[in-house]
Amino acid sequence: MKRFMAILLTAALSAGILAGCGTNTTSSSTSATGETTKAAAGATTTAADTTAAAKLEPVKLTWYFPGNFPQVDQDLVFAEVNKILKEKINCTVDFKPCTFGEYDQKMQVVIASGEDYDICFTSSWTNNYSQNVAKGAFLPLDDLLVKDAPQTLANVSQDMWSAAKVQGKIYAVINQQISARTPSVQFPKALVEKYNFDLNSINGKIGPNTLSLLEPYLAAVNKDDPTKGFIGQISQLGGEFFGYELIGGWQNPGAVAFSDASMKVVNFYETPEFKAYAQTMRDWNAKGYQNSKVRISQKTDEWSDAKAGKWSVYIGSTFQPGGDVGASAQAGEPYECIASGTPYLTTGGITATMQAINRNSKNPERAMMLLELLNTDKELFNLLNSGIKDKHYTIDSDGFLVKEGDAALAYYPNVNWMFASNYLAYPPKGGPIDVWEQQKAINNSSTPSNLLGFSFDAEPVKDEIGKCAAVVDEYYRGIELGVADEAKYNEFIGKLKTAGADKIVAEMQKQIDAWKVTK
Length: 519
Prior knowledge:
Blueprint: H1 2-8, H2 47-54, E1 59-66, H3 74-89, E2 91-98, H4 100-113, E3 119-122, H5 129-135, H6 142-148, H7 150-155, H8 158-164, E4 165-166, E5 169-170, E6 173-174, E7 180-181, E8 184-188, H9 189-194, H10 215-224, E9 229-232, H11 234-237, E10 244-246, E11 254-257, E12 266-267, H12 272-287, H13 292-295, H14 303-307, E13 311-316, H15 323-331, E14 335-339, E15 344-345, H16 347-350, E16 354-357, H17 364-374, H18 378-386, E17 394-395, E18 401-402, H19 405-409, H20 416-419, H21 435-445, E19 447-448, H22 462-480, H23 486-499, H24 501-518
Helix pairs in contact: 2-3, 22-23
């Protein structure tokens, strides 16, 4: 348990997961650590920084990431960020923001084509980490971390770094955040009050077999306005909603039940829990709760639909104290959030937000220096994530970050977890001032997965994984919207088997069995 506590005490904040779109712009990113350093206190550029930067050759880095872009004032903010980067490490960054729905496919093209870039966001849920390592897309970072990012290396526990290792090597820098995972269930406050729906009565009780608890609310909303729908995306629910730890991401078929001490790997999409969810979605689609005819034309659901008043309830992201502030900002109206179930601490939770360096980057050392800076400079972190102080946000007398008026909302991507750790962020107004401590408390009370620390090496079955991911991509939207009937679902399972799902499950079991011996 000491080992688990070491992980837990280093974990921090994560925000919600849906997004908007962006085009190629010149921009930049940032980060935070929990260490009491000069940077953590809010570093500014000094004469020593400028002198050190002058000794470096000027370079321009390219960084791909998903997020809530475009933002009205993003070019203005990114230009200010690049001024600081130029002064401190003599580089500028061309950031390539995409929507969450576009990002995965975009990165597949970028990586396959050999396009020149330096840094990209990677995780188990988009731009899949283990698959890209198997493809040889990412650079091993162990030596670079020691040389060019010593504070970042020291500020993340060795147990957390172990979760990011594949065949003993680190291929991405972990963005520290809330690692204890359970999906958040989010409701428009006005609808909850209108229909007198008691959220306390269902807090922590929502899963694939208890979704009926939401039905009285959904039926009442649908009767008055059928354009408002239930949003439950498979990619955002994660395995935790179903009681499983997914191995290598939601597009991989392998998973282990949290309740199974033997750690038997099963095909997640064949589990009773997933089948129950698919059946409920079919039932709800038939009853009109999904607004499926409109949503089926979209690859994913965006917060712009929430702002248009099309959501009745959303399940996904990660529950966390203060999460209603971010949800309300994204939706453009007050939202209330509850936990769906029990929080679990998993390898996937630790590695859910990371930055990788392209194996073919022309400037890997400077890329790592950038990540080090972004993980240690409070000024830079809050500039990138919240905009220009006194223009896009203010800090009130209690230390809260305040976003008010159109000028403030001209830059509000609200994805602090995207770029780096969250310990340098100012707590947002409307949430608790001790939000980071509350989130650590959730981490401390979470249940460790039996697979905690296991990292899957996808290389032996990378072809099968790619084929299965393509099958999942073809069928998942119809399943989560309930438009795929039972015959279509069975067709999906059959194609997974043809693509090599059983071989993947067997390879995962083999690696887990070998790992258990070393525990």
